[in-house]
Specification:
This protein is an alpha+beta fold. It has helices spanning 29-39, 58-63; strands spanning 5-13, 16-24, 66-73.
Length: 74
């Protein structure tokens, strides 16, 4: 099992600054956009850990008001 790290994700939701921390084994831009939409209440979480989930893309997230997603190791 890969070592998990803590990440900080910052984003704007309809112009309001939001920030949160998440623990994950890896992070990249598409994954950060997905977690930002989940934190904003727009994206889905799986009911069970291994269930497939539809992730929103950057253009979809931007249409819903999530912009300027940035992430870094916490």
């Amino acid at each position: 099992m890969a070592q998990e790290k803590h990440y900080r994700i910052d984003y704007l939701l309809r112009g309001a600054y939001k920030s949160f921390y998440i623990r994950s084994s890896s992070m990249d831009d598409p994954e950060a956009w997905h977690w930002a939409t989940v934190d904003a209440g727009l994206g889905q979480l799986p009911k069970y850990r291994h269930d497939p989930v539809t992730k929103l893309s950057k253009p979809q997230a931007e249409r819903l008001g999530v912009t300027d997603v940035e992430w870094s190791i916490a």
